[in-house]
């Protein structure tokens, strides 16, 4: 089974080796037939502390690193 890759914006880098990434998805509502925006925050592993607030990053699923971290930063999307 392939690992999921999501793209989002870093909203917090205050923790050591961790960034909080806000991922937005758009989908059509099944009853209203209207495009709806939904957001969710993920905590991702950033071992080098290289990403700052406002950066656009891609995250990939991984084995659990801590209680809340199940994602790791894959690559900077702007590079």
TrEMBL record:
InterPro entries: NA-bd_OB-fold, Ribosomal_uS17, Ribosomal_uS17_bact/chlr. One of its GO terms (cellular component) is cytosolic small ribosomal subunit. One of its GO terms (biological process) is translation. Keywords: Ribonucleoprotein, Ribosomal protein, RNA-binding, rRNA-binding. One of its GO terms (molecular function) is rRNA binding. Gene3D superfamilies: Nucleic acid-binding proteins. The keyword rRNA-binding applies. CDD domains: Ribosomal_uS17. It holds the Pfam family Ribosomal_S17. One of the primary rRNA binding proteins, it binds specifically to the 5'-end of 16S ribosomal RNA. Part of the 30S ribosomal subunit. Belongs to the universal ribosomal protein uS17 family. This is Small ribosomal subunit protein uS17. It comes from Roseinatronobacter bogoriensis subsp. barguzinensis.
């Amino acid at each position: 089974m392939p690992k999921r890759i999501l793209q989002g914006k870093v909203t917090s880098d205050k923790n050591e080796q961790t960034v909080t990434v806000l991922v937005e998805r758009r989908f059509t509502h099944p009853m209203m037939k209207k495009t709806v925006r939904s957001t969710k925050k993920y905590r991702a592993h950033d071992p080098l502390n290289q990403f700052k607030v406002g950066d656009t990053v891609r995250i990939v699923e991984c084995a659990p690193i801590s209680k809340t971290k199940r994602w790791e930063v894959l690559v900077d999307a702007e590079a």
